[in-house]
Amino acid sequence: MRLLVVEDDKDLNRQIATALVQAGYAVDRAYDGEEGWFLGDTESYDAIVLDLGLPKKDGIAVLKDWRAAGRTTPVLILTARDRWSDKVQGFDVGADDYVAKPFHIEEVLARLRALLRRATGHASSELTCGPVRLDTRSGRVLVDGNQIKLTSHEYRLLSYLMHHAGRVVSRTELVEHLYDQDFDRDSNTIEVFVGRLRKKLGIDIIQTMRGLGYVVAAPENGQSPGKTGKPDAGALKNS
């Protein structure tokens, strides 16, 4: 999952971005409204943290322009606690949620997890496919109850695919949503990460759709771990 943080307070921007990276997200940062608007308008993000009191272009104008252009990315706005009118105006122009300053970073993380779940049709913080469970709160991945240790990039890949379980995700989409702006993007690395994930999971829930991309699907009944079968969207579930 790739996120954008638009906040002019450099210390607060860094604190939020650091916490998000530690939580397993790829993060881009902007420090004024013009830069934030441009990134949100031209890059692919799964969610955006947007401060309202921005220089050059205020957050309300940024969000209003995104929505007018058809950008549907979930947006969490940051606002001063005593500016209730900003909250109302933010919702009116298309915000999905808000956090009042000062705030605990854990609340920002929890609200972003909720936005990401809703955007992909999930009701629970735990994503399940066959014997594989991914807990978005703790970042833990378990297979048949046994925890599997993944690198940050492997976790991001599995998390994105499981959030979009049952849908074919192209390599291009994965590259756009797994890496921050400064990462040296190469779609070939996706194949490497998929291979590593399959080996670590020990069961092939990541199916290759030749010429199209990948889809997460539970193995067909009776299939042995590691063998590729046809995706079974009906076997997918989210507990």
TrEMBL record:
Domain OmpR/PhoB-type residues, every copy: 124-218
List of residues that carry 4-aspartylphosphate: 51
Region annotation (Disordered) ranges: 218-239
Keywords: DNA-binding, Phosphoprotein, Transcription, Transcription regulation, Two-component regulatory system
Ranges annotated as DNA-binding: 124-218
Entry-linked SMART domains: REC, Trans_reg_C
Family annotation (Gene3D superfamilies): 3.40.50.2300, 6.10.250.690, Winged helix-like DNA-binding domain superfamily/Winged helix DNA-binding domain
Transcription recorded as keyword: yes
Protein name per Swiss-Prot or TrEMBL: Winged helix family two component transcriptional regulator
Gene Ontology biological process: regulation of DNA-templated transcription
Cellular component, GO, one term: cytosol
UniProt GO molecular function: phosphorelay response regulator activity; transcription cis-regulatory region binding
Response regulatory domain ranges (all copies): 2-116
Family annotation (InterPro entries): CheY-like_superfamily (IPR011006), OmpR/PhoB-type_DNA-bd (IPR001867), Sig_transdc_resp-reg_C-effctor (IPR016032), Sig_transdc_resp-reg_receiver (IPR001789), WalR-like (IPR039420), WH-like_DNA-bd_sf (IPR036388)
